[in-house]
């Protein structure tokens, strides 16, 4: 795969000076157009050590307006990063729409190093490449332009640069070059496999011969200009790959998964107080054990309007020390959040080891309210099931306990609670015209909930369907489930 990048192509100084100004000007103009566009640009800079990747990044900062660039260098993981799933650090580095992000190192770096240095096995490497493909597919489907640059040096070329550095001939190479040069053949073999398995039409690799710096630099500029120009001239702008509409799993009039929820369940006051005291005490102890063992928890609360999610969340948090949890109340996305992939705002709040993040509504809004109200295209909400499952799988792989509660009530109970809110002064702020409008689309939401549960209730992150007609039953069920799942995850 790298033979075409070992041809020894050179560019004379005079030719470089003739071509460089026009390329420089074009990149500035394209960058200005990107600023007004509705997509982010992600430039991945990878390749053989000693190929001058750092020089290329510095060159791009000279050629382009640094106010529109966001450059991220992924060195060793920090303590903060190690306490979260691996992709947390990459999500934080994603540029918003209208900006260009340069990733010096990326999600490819660690898998390649680990296999080349025999810290991991081939099967783990291939699984990681599958995750990378899915991650890049997800970004492209959301509109991102990904430009992947691989800078190649032959073994002889790398050794030559090491010799020139040792003799002080103006060539400087970093310490990683000296370390990894001993394993050049293995690194090239592993890298070739990584590129081959992730080279796809919507996110292709560009392999650049780096033995001649002038050729390398011009080639980088030409590739960036070509990809940016092509994307900006698309009409209409691409929203990713084409998908086929999938029908709802529940047909109108058919029973849904919610039909099996025992809404007639009830509990008397004495049994309620006894159970709440038992599970609250248990959760308090479990939360501190989880803190000591570094087990973090993500809890998602979804349900019908007036189902009692807020009251249930209060019972959970009252059972834990306030230093151990955060509650994220999810509303309409801000302008900053809308400039990123919709999962970006949820990745930001993933807790570090030993802590809890409780989402009052969550990423499932994409397949519920955004689907029903038309805030997301069919393509966007249909692909979200797979994106959500992948997100939760990464959380679980990291050791996170993922809890998902759907609090279910019937239409009659919802109507009773709506009227109670209207008639109770200190509850009137809880009822809005939007609540009444959502109620009119009960059947649509029920079909959407059925699809959500069937497509995202996995072995590692199952849904708990909570009967909510009796709020006391719902609170006991939620606390009990929280304790059982957290206890099972602890040593």
The side-by-side strand order for the widest beta sheet comes to: 2-3-1-4-5
Continuous helix count: 20
> What name does the CATH topology of the largest domain carry?
Rossmann fold
Oligomer class: single chain
Strand content: 5-15%
Intertermini distance: 47 Å
Q: What shape does the CA trace take?
A: elongated
Return the average pLDDT rounded to an integer: 92
CATH architecture of the largest domain: 3-Layer(aba) Sandwich
Radius of gyration: 27 Å
Helix content: 40-55%
CATH class of the largest domain: Alpha Beta
Largest sheet: 5 strands, parallel
Point out poorly predicted stretches: 237-245
Number of strands: 10
CATH superfamily of the largest domain: P-loop containing nucleotide triphosphate hydrolases
Encode the helix/strand succession as letters.
Answer: HEHEHHEHHEHHHEHHEHEHHEHHEHHHEH
From the helix content, strand content and strand pairing, which structural class follows? Answer: alpha/beta
């Amino acid at each position: 795969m790298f033979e075409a990048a070992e041809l020894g192509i050179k560019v004379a100084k005079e030719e470089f000076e003739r071509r460089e100004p026009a390329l420089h000007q074009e990149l500035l103009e394209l960058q200005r157009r990107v600023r007004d566009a509705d997509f982010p640009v992600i430039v991945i800079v990878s390749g053989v050590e000693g190929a001058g990747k750092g020089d290329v990044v510095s060159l791009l900062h000279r050629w382009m307006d640094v106010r529109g660039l966001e450059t991220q260098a992924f060195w060793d993981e920090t303590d903060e990063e190690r306490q979260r799933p691996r992709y947390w650090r990459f999500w934080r580095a994603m540029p918003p729409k209208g900006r260009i992000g340069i990733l010096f190192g990326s999600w490819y770096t660690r898998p390649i190093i680990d296999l080349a240095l025999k810290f991991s096995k081939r099967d783990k490497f291939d699984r990681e490449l599958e995750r990378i493909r899915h991650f890049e597919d997800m970004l492209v489907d959301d509109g991102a332009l990904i430009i992947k640059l691989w800078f190649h040096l032959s073994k002889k070329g790398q050794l030559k640069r090491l010799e020139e550095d040792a003799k002080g001939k103006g060539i400087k190479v970093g310490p990683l070059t000296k370390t990894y040069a001993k394993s050049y053949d293995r690194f090239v073999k592993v890298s070739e496999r990584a590129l081959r398995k992730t080279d796809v039409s919507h996110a292709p690799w560009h392999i650049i011969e780096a033995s001649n710096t002038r050729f390398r630099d011009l080639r980088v500029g030409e590739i960036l200009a070509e990809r940016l120009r092509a994307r900006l001239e698309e009409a209409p702008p691409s929203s990713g790959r084409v998908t086929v509409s999938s029908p709802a799993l529940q047909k109108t009039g058919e029973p849904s998964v919610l039909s099996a929820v025992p809404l007639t369940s009830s509990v008397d006051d004495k049994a309620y107080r006894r159970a709440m005291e038992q599970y609250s005490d248990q959760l308090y102890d479990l939360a501190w054990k989880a803190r000591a063992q570094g087990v973090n928890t993500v809890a998602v609360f979804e349900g019908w309007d007036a189902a009692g999610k807020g009251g249930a969340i209060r019972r959970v948090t009252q059972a834990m020390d306030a230093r151990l949890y955060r509650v994220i109340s999810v509303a309409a996305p801000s302008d900053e959040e809308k400039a990123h992939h919709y999962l970006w705002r949820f990745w930001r709040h993933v807790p570090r080891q030993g802590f809890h993040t409780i989402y009052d509504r969550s990423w499932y809004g994409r397949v519920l309210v955004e689907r029903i109200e038309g805030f997301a295209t069919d393509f966007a909400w249909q692909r979200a099931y797979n994106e959500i499952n992948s997100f939760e799988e990464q959380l679980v792989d990291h050791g996170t306990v993922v809890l998902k509660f759907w609090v279910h009530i019937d239409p009659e109970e919802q109507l009773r609670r709506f009227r109670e809110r209207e008639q109770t002064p200190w509850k009137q702020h809880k009822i809005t015209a939007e609540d009444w409008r959502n109620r009119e689309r009960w059947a649509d939401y029920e079909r959407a909930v059925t699809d959500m549960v069937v497509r995202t209730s996995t072995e590692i992150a199952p849904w708990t369907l909570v009967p909510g007609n009796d709020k006391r039953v719902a609170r006991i069920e939620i606390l009990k489930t929280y304790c059982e799942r957290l206890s099972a995850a602890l040593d």
